Amino acid sequence: MLPPAPAPPHDPVDGSENRNPRPYSLAKGVFGVTAGVVAIAVTFALFLPTVFAEVISTLNSTVVNSIGWYYVLLVTGFVGFAIVVALSRLGTIKLGRDDDEPEYGLLSWFAMLFAAGMGIGLVFWGAAEPLTFFASDGGIPPNAAHLDDPARAQRAMGQTFLHWGLHAWAIYVVAGLAIAYSVHRRRRPVSIRWALEPILGKRTDTWIGDLIDIIALVGTLFGIATSLGFGVNQIAAGLDHLGLLPNSTTVQVIIVLSVTALATISAASGVDKGIKFLSNLNLGLAALLLVAVLILGPTLFLLRDVVQNIGYYLQHFLELSFQTLPFMGDEGASWISGWTTYYWGWWMSWSPFVGVFIARISRGRTVREFITGVLLVPTLVTMVWFTVMGGTALYKSLFENIDFTGEDGTIDANTALFDTLSTLPLGMLLSGIAVVLVTIFFITSADSGAFVMDMIAHRGDPNPPRLTRIFWASASGIIAAALIWAGSVSGAEGAGMTGLQAMALLSALPFSIVMIGMCVSTWIALSREVKIIQRLELRIRQREFVERYSDQLTGTVSDRVSAQIAEQVTAQVDGRVAEQVEQQVATQIDARVDEQVSARLDEHAADQAGQPGQQDGHRRGRNPFRR
């Protein structure tokens, strides 16, 4: 078990004191309302399965058809948000303290997030979805129906990549990143509400936060129960294909209860034991099945196909991302709501569960590492998986003329994978591996979901009580089993599961608003921290500059000051010397003048003494030395 994350005494982002959220305990309001909503829905489905399915499906169709454009635009915006954050300075922030190291190794981390994210869906739809878009009546995209077989097959793979590629994982990035930052960087409880703290402030731990957690719990519980229904259908179909057990309602209920028991044991053992072990085991089995089909199937074709599929996806990325088919009329609207919009709502309904779980296991990684790991790596693996499984099915259909459609002209998603594997050598063995793979994905989805739901129900406790973990794991399986049984008894098989699936999609609508708030909150929080880091870096650079060049600057300044002082002293000294010299020269000049005047006067007197006759004349004459 992981140690509980301690609350810090200090907010590392804005320096404000920790608001001291309430201590970990069962949030009775959140738990009670969630249980009430689920109880009402299950009771309705058990006793009036047909009516329940009709009401919920009508409501779901109305909502989805009305806001399909909103879902398409929103999810594409999530892709842009994730890419911008990863490539910007915001991506350098670490999800944890600056000296924290990743809690799990890269392989274990990737295995857990992949298994929790969509592992069971990849196995279920790996061959079924490309075949449906290529050959199924009503499943072919309206804008691809006129294409010839090779072009339609390529379009089928591109459309599949759209539904399972960057868009799907960008939804998980938005939820997971917001939660991981609040939990590991700000040291808040593991819960949805705290991801919105930058915009909710003090209202985070009030009824508003409770409402956010309730929406997350309802969507997660319905999503997991519906996923279990898909898994059960495929496991039962696989056992029937192998000739082990017939595909019946009784067998399906037994499978649900058996797998739920295993999931409960795994959930009770915690992340480090059961969930981690099963995730690594599942990744190994998935890799084994993938390599086996690649080798036993049309290997060269698949290698060429994966390169071309990636190129087609990138080339038509923007076109597919904004595809709403408005000029196809009702047919286009129906197809988009049944596939693309359905997938976007489905991923958003799962995002609380997957977001919390991958955030829980991502401490110590930077924002850029988180986005790269969650967005790009699973997308590439998903592309390879669908190319190998779906590409093999399309190859068999195009070049070996194998018809995978049923009598009604549609593709049976439950058996499409097993029908494809049966065309290969060792087909029975591969089908057996696929059944085990689906079963383990089934368990990892249920136990991971139970762990996450219990954390939310206990105000974000990273290590919730074992008893309540067992409750959530059991509840999801029991709901799925009850609805399968009710649908069979009422004669409307699948009615209960269809209605429950619609409930999961409806819960995605209010949560989409929460996800917009997550994007805003994450951007605000990361931007604030980057600004703080930039100011600190500027101060550090200034300090290093002073320390590095202080001696040189001191010497230079000292030389300049000394020179200036010397110039001033020289000027002053020169001025005083000049004045003294001038005075001395003036004195000398006066003395010389006096000497010459005296000499001339003496000489003149002597002349006069020798010539008496001229004495009077001289007296009457002008003195030459008088002025």
Automatic annotation (TrEMBL):
Question: What does the sequence similarity comment in the record state about its family?
Answer: Belongs to the BCCT transporter (TC 2.A.15) family.
A Pfam family this chain is assigned to: BCCT
Q: Which residues form a coiled coil?
A: none
Which species is this UniProt entry from? Brachybacterium epidermidis
Q: Where is this region: Disordered?
A: 600-627
Query: Which segment of the chain is annotated as a signal peptide?
Result: none
Upper classification of the source organism reads: Bacteria, Bacillati, Actinomycetota, Actinomycetes, Micrococcales
**Membrane in keyword set:** yes
Q: In its UniProt entry, what is this protein called?
A: BCCT family transporter
Transmembrane stretches in the record are: 29-48, 68-92, 104-128, 161-183, 211-231, 251-271, 283-303, 344-362, 374-395, 426-446, 467-488, 500-526
Compartments, as annotated in UniProt: Cell membrane
Stated membrane topology is: Multi-pass membrane protein
Key words of the record: Cell membrane, Membrane, Transmembrane, Transmembrane helix, Transport
Q: Which InterPro entries match?
A: BCCT_transptr
